[in-house]
Design brief:
Distance between the termini: 43 Å
Number of strands: 4
Radius of gyration: 17 Å
Length: 132
């Protein structure tokens, strides 16, 4: 059974998904791509919201970073409009892109994600190093 995968990219125009990524995804016939600038629209019907921080170190000029930081924040208001079964993931650490009030929402799974990632890295190291 093949399922259609819909990737929704939501970012300010200055941080849109790079064309080489979109071109790569286009090679997969069951993958559809959509672009949004409004997060409320982007989460409609979503199963997963994967959030990352705006990385200050990737900007040449601090002014450019200041224009977009905090532009998208996951808070309780957004979560009220999001599907009840949608999960929120984040690689951590966060800056201000997810309000701490969201931590208690059962759909917030970034702490479990972090813990599971640690176990996966431990397993990979054990495989590489062998067990004593």
């Amino acid at each position: 059974i093949k399922h259609e995968l819909v990737l929704r990219y939501c970012a300010p125009s200055s941080l849109e998904m790079p064309s080489h990524v979109k071109e790569y995804v286009e090679k997969f016939p069951n993958a559809k791509q959509e672009e949004y600038t409004d997060m409320r629209e982007a989460v409609k019907g979503a199963n997963v919201l994967y959030v990352t921080r705006v990385q200050k170190e990737r900007f040449e000029h601090v002014e450019d970073y200041e224009k977009v930081k905090g532009a998208y924040v996951v808070d309780t208001s957004l979560m009220k409009s999001a599907p009840s079964g949608m999960i929120v993931m984040h690689p951590l650490p966060r800056v201000d892109e997810i309000a701490t009030e969201v931590d208690s929402d059962p759909r917030a799974c970034y702490f479990r994600q972090m813990e599971n990632g640690m176990f996966v890295r431990m397993a990979i190291l054990a495989l590489i190093l062998g067990t004593p």
